[in-house]
Amino acid sequence: MNAGVARALRSCSAQASKNVPCPTKAIRAGSPTRGCGYGGASSGDGRRNTEAAGGTLAGYAARVPEWQERLTRDTHPTIRIEHELRYRLTAPLVRGAATWCDLGCGTGVAAAAALGDARAARVVLVDLEPDAAAQAVAELGAARAETLTADLSDETDLASLRELLLRADGGGVISCFEVVEHLRTFVPLLELLIDLAGEHDYTTVLSVPNDAFGTIENPYHLTMWGEGALEELRRMLPRDHVAAAQVPVSGSAFVIDGSAGDNSALTVAQRPSPVASHFIVAFGPRAAELRGVAAAEMTDLEGQRNWERQREANLAFHEEELAELRDYVHDLERRLDAGASGDDA
Fold it and tell me: What's domain 3-298's architecture?
């Protein structure tokens, strides 16, 4: 990569991060070291697998609370389908590719559900958590998959990733979904991906959230993305890159005499100026092969109601606990002040 592009990428990094009043790591509950945990996680049997605080995730310590960043089979259907759809978008590229590499693979729940039998000849799964990548191997049924534990903001780890990918010829496809916003710096990763696209026939499909769409600032996102930051990023990518917007949809379906009939052809009515929940960019020799996709599934209203009630119960518990802590602190302050007054006398 030439020096001009590298400087521009660093300018893009500043554009993405300068508007983020990130809380310090000291006050991020469960905040990880070495960047941030990324990807989805599940116990494998559909159980909720993160306790309210300091819990475990698929048998190992949870660095990121499940309700915040981790995808499980218990995740709200809207969020789960949103994740799966990004992998469905890449499925035609993954199918038959020499290598498919999933950066921030998590435990593979979304990828396994979306890709089905679409498999590359070689699978490389990369995550900050080694146990997550190991579970992704099982979820995907990819017994011969290669795994790499890596912090994608660390240049040494990125060098290991590059070496691993280039062990085999033929290029391939790299998916990088909901990862970039978690990194201390995403510039070294983008430099690597652009180089792999231009010199080694790798096509990357990458997503970032539209933070203007969210109503609550996510303390686990170290950069903030919107249309302005996205445009800065696009100026740095190869000219033939492809950009897409992922937009939420709402709908309904009929079930007649117990059968939903043929609802496989999902029709999405267009509306002017839809608001994107996520932005997608793809670059590399196969980027132009991407085609629009949409997905929906029938809502488990009972399951959703239980999910919402559990969230409400957790919130009520923590609100009560916070009130008790405040009362304790105020009482302690009063006693300390009283003791100080006695000492002065």
Answer: 3-Layer(aba) Sandwich (3.40)
pLDDT tens digits for range 99-120: 999 999 998 988 988 898 878 8
Tokens of 11: 């300018």
Q: What is the pTM of this model?
A: 0.72
- Spans of the chain, pLDDT less than 70: 1-70, 72-75, 215, 260-265, 342-345
**85, two tokens:** 């759809």
